[in-house]
Every structure is written in C-alpha cells, then in structure tokens.
UniProtKB/TrEMBL annotation:
Pfam families: LacI, Peripla_BP_3. The keyword NADP does not apply. One of its GO terms (molecular function) is DNA-binding transcription factor activity. It comes from Aeriscardovia aeriphila. This is LacI family transcriptional regulator. Transmembrane segments: none annotated. InterPro entries: HTH_LacI, LacI/GalR-like_sensor, Lambda_DNA-bd_dom_sf, Peripla_BP_I.
Length: 380
C-alpha cells in the first residue's frame, strides 16, 4: 500500500514538474514574442508618425530629434516626449551615413536637353552655384532629367547613397512629383528656387515676378500699347502661373486686350507661338517672351514674315542675357542677377547642411532694361 502511494505521489510530482516546465517555456516564448513585437513596433515608428502624434510638421520633428535650430523649446520638448512615448528609435545606419559628408550638392536640370546647352538662365545659375561651392570646398553634382517625375529616382538614389549632402530644386511645378520623396526625407537639406506659396514646407529663394510684370506692363502701356501677348514657358511651372495670373489681372483692370500661349522655352516653341499669334484676328502690338531664346526666335520669325521690328511689333524678353544687347534691334528685357541668385541659394543650402536655419529670401529686384525693341505702336 505504501509502495502504491509512493508511486502515485512520484507520478503526480513528475506531472506537476512537467506542467510547470511547459508553462515556463510557454511564458518565456510569449515574453520573447512580446519583446520582439515591441522591438518591431519601435522599428516601425517613423518621423512621420511622431509628427502626426505631436501635431507638427515632419521638418519640425527632424529639427527637434537632431538637435537643430528651427523649433521653439516648448515644441522641441513636446516632440521629444511624443517620440519617447511612441518608442521611436534613431536609425543608427542613417546617422552614420549622414555624419560622413560628401561635400557635394546636387542640381538637376530638367526639360528639353537641347535647351540646357543654350539657355542663358541655367548657365548663369550654374556659374553662381559653382563659384560659391568653390569658396566652401564643395563640389556640384549635375544631372539631367526630362521631367520632374524623372528626377524622383535620381533624388532617391542621392539620399540612399549619400552622394550629395543636399540639393537645389528648380522649375517647381504645381503638384510637383518630387515633393513626396522630399517630405518622406525631411533630414535631406533642400532649397527651392520658387515662390514660398508654392513650396511652404521648404526654404526658398524667390523673385518678385508680380512686380516684374507690373514694370513691363507700365512700360508698354505708357508707349500706348492696348493689345499685348504673352508667350510663356510650360503652364505647369509655378513661375509661369504667377506671371500669367499677374499679367492677365493687370490687363483686365486696365482694359488692355490680352492673350497668351504656353510653350516649352525652346526656339522652336518660340517660333511656333509667334507664328500662331499672327493668325489671330486681332494681332497684338507687343509680345512678352518668358526667356531670351524664344524672344530671339520670335524676332527672326517676324522678320521672315515681313514685319519690321519694332515698328510693326514691340518685343520684350525675360532674364536679359548678353543675347539681348547684341542683336539688332537690341531687346528690351527684364534683368535679374541670376549669378547672384546662384550664390545665395548655395549659401542657404550650405547653411542647412551645417545645421543652421535658412529662412526664405527674396532675390535682388528686377530691373527693366529699355532698349530699341519697344516703341509706340505706329497706328496709335
């Protein structure tokens, strides 16, 4: 009887030990899974998650988490507390990559490849950028893309590889495809050459195109022009939209007949748009071109069609490259110091790269260079 009881007791003890061991194994596995789950959750927390939870922008979170200026102490504390509560962890690999600077900045030229070789604006912009880069022992990495959408993989590659420390954004569009990748990487320094209203999330260097339009229109109306045409660049570009809206509104307010044609900045586009204007029932007496390349092409096209310039048509160009003063008649043009703009936008970008603030700035004011291509219309 004692043997049976002893055997039963041993069996019960063995069963209990086995049960306890299984329970402990299950609990350990559960804790391990829970720990792994928590670690996975932490890895999934992004800057965008912290920004949403704190009710601030991605850029503000980036500044706060990286100890950079640009946010108030109260906002910084709020962001840091939110990041802690969410379990945000820094990406050590990304931090190591960002710490090793390439001392290079990027600039992508988009649009027609043939235009990039002759467009005076970009040549002068690049001159200003490279000049400032050389002063600071930086290099300029130039790439070309056909469209803003085609720039996206280039930007992604730059960010992933650390090939450049930041970039200058040009030819900003409404609903720009590049914004999505830049918003996802707020640590990547970018300065845009665009009106701040078009890119509220980036620092910008911008020209006062509304003031420039007012100056051109005042000059032409004082000469007596009552029918004016505008041959612009691509209509999806932000500065095209700003100029177009300004000219149209000002002409309506002053009772001036106004028409416009959007094209692609090329000489072929300028020629085609000019010839189209000649088919209109009421021809303009003055044409405003958005760049010098189109203005020169328009001048040639008008002469081939028997027009005397400026007697039969006054012409105004934009940007005032050396081309404007060397042709006959010399072209009245809006001058902007593009070389200086290249220097200043580079200074802003290098400041961002070094962890400083770079508030948006306005370019030097336009100057209207009045030359021989604008006169009183002969029938006025």
């Amino acid at each position: 009887m004692q043997k049976k009881n002893l055997h039963a007791l041993m069996h019960t003890s063995t069963h209990k030990r086995s049960y306890c061991a299984n329970f402990l194994v299950q609990q350990a596995a559960h804790r391990g899974a829970e720990k792994r789950g928590n670690m996975e959750d932490r890895r999934k927390i992004t800057i965008a998650d912290v920004a949403r939870a704190a009710g601030v922008s991605n850029s503000a979170v980036s500044y706060a988490l990286n100890g950079r200026p640009g946010v108030s102490p109260e906002t910084r504390d709020k962001i840091l507390q939110t990041a802690h509560n969410l379990g945000w962890q820094p990406n050590r690999a990304a931090q190591s990559l960002s710490a090793a600077k390439s001392r290079s900045i990027g600039l992508i030229l988009d649009g027609d490849p043939s235009l990039a070789a002759v467009e005076p604006y970009f040549m002068r912009l690049i001159a200003g950028v490279t000049q400032e880069c050389e002063k600071n022992n930086y290099s300029l990495v130039l790439r070309r893309a056909s469209t803003a959408q085609a720039e996206v993989p280039v930007i992604e590659q730059w960010i992933a590889s650390g090939a450049v420390d930041g970039m200058i954004l040009t030819n900003v569009e409404a609903h720009d495809a590049r914004f999505s990748v830049l918003v996802d990487h707020p640590d990547f320094p970018v300065v845009a050459l665009a009106d701040p209203s078009m890119v509220p999330h980036l620092p910008t260097l911008f020209s006062d195109d509304v003031q420039a339009c007012s100056m051109v229109l005042e000059h032409l109306t004082q000469l007596g022009h009552k029918s004016i045409a505008h041959i612009s660049g691509p209509e999806n570009l932000s500065h095209t939209q700003i100029r177009e809206k300004a000219l149209k509104n000002m002409c309506e307010q002053q009772g001036i007949q106004y028409t416009s044609i959007a094209t692609d900045y090329t000489s072929e586009g300028g020629t085609a748009a000019t010839l189209e204007l000649l088919t209109r029932y009421e021809r303009p007496t003055a044409i405003i071109y958005d760049n010098d390349v189109m203005a020169l092409a328009g001048l040639v096209a008008l002469r081939k069609n028997g027009f005397s310039i400026p007697r039969d048509m006054s012409l105004v160009s934009w940007d005032d490259s050396v081309l404007c003063s060397t042709v006959s008649p010399a072209l009245t043009s809006m001058y902007r110091d593009v070389v200086n703009a290249g220097e200043r936008v580079t200074q802003m970008l290098l400041a961002l790269i070094d962890g400083h603030e770079a508030p948006s700035q306005k370019e030097k004011p336009y100057t209207l260079m009045v030359r021989s291509s604008t006169v009183t219309p002969h029938h006025a």
